[in-house]
Write a structure and sequence with these properties.
It is built from 33 helices and eight strands. The radius of gyration is 43 Å and the shape is elongated. The longest helix has 37 residues, at 631-667. The strands form four sheets. It has a two-stranded antiparallel sheet with strand order 1-2. It is mainly α and 825 residues long.
């Protein structure tokens, strides 16, 4: 000791470090592990760690979740508003070991070579220097130099040093590399912009380094008592060597991943769930080393505290407290809740920030939907019911997978951790813990939202109302509407007045559906494409490229579309007004499917109406003498009407009613909103499939056949309306109704007989006219050909694995083998 004082060597370095970190004076000698002990003091870090050490938050407070409102408001505005650390954190290089990497001039001091001292003195001098170098401070004979290698530092002992001592020194010196590298990363990532998970990681690393500094202080105490030799020093630091090496490798991987996976152009950002995934991978890879597993599990458990605090807030409050954009859920607050896309786009997943211990697809989806459900309750004024039972008792529902708040890192390593306090989650390697917790929260929140929709918002009644209007469950309102709006809908879509059509629709609904309170939510619109073009456009987007899309649309216009300007009938469709939160079920996508079904049903109903009108005109021509001359026209009209009515019967009875019955049966057993959405989508998808809306070729064939029927109905009605007895006199000037009641009967018998004979003569002349016969034969050939193609395509579709229900449509369309027999002949 006298010799050391003569050389001017003291213990100021270690003492200054201990004063800086607030450590009390060195403990009694019995606190230092003896050479015969198997667990040195550094190994105590696993057994004496606090369950939730503080980490640096944006407000500078230790507890997670107690962040400053000012900082949160600034961070929510964007990265440019993240607080900036004061300059003194960068202007004091000795706090961050930055002085080691700065250029330093040679002091020029010429010290005596250590080899000039006896070996015993050399050992004392080396022990004293090592205690300084181990914490990043230059010694007298051991100096730290910057290199270009991976370690970045090099410590070159005096070449005159005794070889045996030099070998021991070389074994101990890697501790300096590890320590300095970890301190450097802590100094970098404790800044605000790196996020809360990085702050928690830095706090955990500081906790480990604190144990390391305590070890160095204890070794210095032993040196001051003269009980520390170089061999003892090497023995005592071996566990610390393993600990710091594990941290060093972790730091290297974090820095490597930051360079290989930059976020938004930054080469130094690895945070949130991405950082937890790196930590989790290290913890899993170290499964064969008990000491390293404990250490990395502790670091991961403490680093996950802020992330899991966000998860807990999301699962039990529906709130996202994420000022640094590092959570798995991203909130887009600018989207209004009454928008149809609110449910899908207000909250979205950040796939890169999904923690790997939560990477089960079902668990992640439940996490996303649970917070959405709580948001629904909050937006609907159900704030008093947002708190869930699983949160009130501290998540005690998963007692099998949870540990008490004083759980150690061993619990985390073995998967027994679940919470660190009442209502707060903690890391666990056992994914079943999270699955159970998430399932409980998901079930409770979904059940409440389902009750809100069914009981308060009358979801079932709204579903039935939409079916009544869009799927024509009760078509009496449609008959009234077509009678009122025929003139307006017959115009071009650009010239039709939407206001007048809406008023006529409202009048028809009041007349036919006076008992339905939801009729006020029904309105109409005129779209810019026909029913076929709309469906083909969507199909081409989902399964074809742009060129194929253009080809589909051109074929639709040539063969199955309108063939010209859209009329009001072609552009007409219904709309349905839904409020929040019912638009969760009746989303924009769902209402689009309903619109597709309605437009095709409306098209078939319109064709039936026109054919029935032609049938009514034909009935009034039966009194003509040459009525059989129009028999071929009547037969073709009858076959067309049978085709349309058979198609409607199949769509309404075999498809809609059958699928609706299945839908109602499944709705009786639903427990979550997701089940409602799934069942509802399946009902609509089944209808779309059996309406053959997902088969563009078959759909175009049906549309062509319907279009041919409508064109023929309009043509034949125009030709035969002049033969209707009683509408006009043969000279076109006198109507039967113009005669008074007192002159009806006997005075007009002769005039009726003469008119009937003249109309019969005109009908016979029309039926024998070559141009008329050619036109009718053309319509007949086109219709028969199109129906034959439809039947052939339906049978081929069923044989190829299509739905067997389509065979029933084939049987109805070809019930007497008329078309199949003609093809065989």
């Amino acid at each position: 000791c006298d010799l050391l004082r003569t050389c001017g060597i003291g213990s100021w370095a270690v003492g200054s470090v201990l004063r800086a970190i607030g450590v009390m004076p060195s403990p009694p000698p019995h606190h230092v592990a003896s050479p015969g002990s198997t667990t040195p003091s550094v190994d105590r870090l696993v057994s004496r760690l606090a369950p939730s050490p503080s980490f640096v938050s944006p407000a500078g407070k230790p507890a997670p979740g107690q962040r400053s409102k000012d900082v949160l408001s600034l961070a929510a505005q964007g990265p440019q508003h993240i607080p900036v650390a004061p300059n003194w954190t960068r202007s004091r290089p000795f706090l961050s070991m930055a002085h080691l990497f700065e250029p330093r001039a040679d002091t020029g001091d010429e010290e005596a070579s250590i080899g000039t001292f006896p070996i015993q003195v050399q050992e004392m001098l080396l022990v004293n220097d090592l205690l300084s170098v181990l914490i990043g401070i230059d010694g007298k004979y051991l100096r730290i130099k910057v290199t270009s290698g991976e370690a970045g530092l090099a410590i070159r002992p005096d070449p005159t040093l005794d070889l045996s001592l030099a070998d021991l020194v070389d074994r101990i010196l890697p501790l300096t590399h590890y320590y300095v590298r970890v301190v450097r990363m802590i100094d970098l990532r404790h800044k605000y912009e790196f996020g809360l998970v990085n702050h928690a990681l830095c706090a955990a690393l500081r906790e480990v380094l604190r144990e390391y500094l305590i070890l160095v202080a204890q070794l210095e105490h032993q040196m001051s008592l003269g009980h520390l030799s170089l061999q003892k020093l090497w023995f005592f630091v071996q566990p610390a060597m393993q600990t710091l090496k594990a941290l060093y490798n972790l730091v290297l991987d974090i820095e490597a991943d930051s360079r290989s996976k930059p976020e938004r152009g930054s080469t130094t950002t690895l945070r949130g769930g991405m950082l937890l995934n790196v930590l989790h991978a290290h913890a899993v890879a170290a499964g064969g080393e008990q000491h390293t597993t404990k250490l990395l599990s502790f670091v991961l458990q403490e680093s996950a505290v802020p992330y899991l605090a966000m998860l807990h807030s999301w699962l039990h409050e529906g709130l996202v407290h994420d000022p640094y954009a590092e959570f798995m859920i991203e909130e887009r607050p600018n989207r209004p809740y009454y928008d149809d896309s609110y449910w899908e786009k207000r909250y979205v997943k950040r796939d890169k920030h999904v923690a790997s211990f939560l990477a089960d697809k079902d668990v992640v989806e439940k996490i996303l939907n649970t917070g959405k459900y709580l948001t629904v309750l909050r937006e609907c004024g159900e704030a008093k019911t947002v708190g869930l039972p699983v949160a009130a008792d501290g998540l005690a529902v998963a007692a099998d997978g949870l540990a008490h708040h004083d759980a150690s890192a061993q619990d985390a390593a073995t998967g027994q951790a679940g919470r660190v306090g009442p209502g707060v989650l903690s890391y666990s390697s056992n994914t079943r813990v999270y699955a159970q917790l998430v399932h409980e929260a998901y079930t409770a929140s979904s059940h409440r939202v389902l009750d809100l929709l069914v009981k308060q918002k009358q979801l079932l009644h709204r579903l039935h109302s939409v079916k009544r209007y869009f799927l024509l469950e009760q078509g009496d309102w449609l008959v009234h509407f077509l009678d009122l709006a025929h003139e307006e809908l017959s115009k071009d879509a650009a010239q039709a007045s939407k206001t007048r059509i809406e008023s006529m629709l409202a009048l028809a609904l009041v007349t036919a559906a006076s008992g339905d309170q939801e009729r006020d939510n029904v309105s109409c619109s005129l779209v810019a494409s026909s029913a076929l073009e709309e469906v083909l456009y969507v199909i081409s987007i989902d399964g074809s490229d742009r060129a194929s899309r253009s080809r589909h649309l051109s074929q639709a216009g040539a063969g199955g579309g309108t063939g010209g300007a859209l009329t009001g009938y072609d552009a007409f469709t219904l709309t349905y007004k839904v409020d929040w939160p019912v638009n969760i079920v009746f989303s924009r996508k769902t209402m689009t499917k309903y619109r597709w079904l309605f437009r095709h049903l409306f098209l078939y109903k319109l064709a039936e109406r026109e054919l029935c009108s032609a049938w009514g005109t034909h009935q009034q021509t039966k009194a003509l003498k040459n009525h059989p001359a129009l028999a071929l026209d009547f037969a073709l009209r009858a076959r067309m009407l049978h085709f349309i009515q058979s198609l409607q019967h199949y769509l309404v009875m075999d498809v809609i009613e059958n699928s609706w019955h299945t839908f109602q049966e499944k709705m009786r057993g639903v427990k979550t909103v997701e089940e409602v959405l799934g069942i509802h989508d399946k009902f609509l998808d089944t209808c779309i499939k059996l309406f053959v809306l997902n088969d563009p070729n078959l759909l175009k064939m049906l549309t062509r056949a319907v279009k041919t029927s409508r064109n023929f109905a309009n043509y034949i009605q125009c030709k035969t309306s002049m033969f209707v007895f009683g509408n006009t006199s043969p000279d076109g000037t006198t109507r039967e109704g113009d005669l008074g009641e007192e002159y009806a009967g006997v005075p007009t018998i002769r005039a009726k007989r003469m008119a009937r004979q003249q109309l019969g003569t005109l009908a016979a002349a029309l039926s024998a006219e070559p141009k008329h016969r050619q036109t009718v034969d053309k319509y007949e050939g086109e219709f028969d050909h199109q129906v034959s193609l439809v039947l052939e395509s339906l049978r081929t579709f069923c044989k190829g694995g299509g739905d067997a229900h389509l065979l029933a449509l084939c049987a109805q369309l070809d019930f007497n083998k008329f078309y199949s027999g003609r093809n065989e002949a």
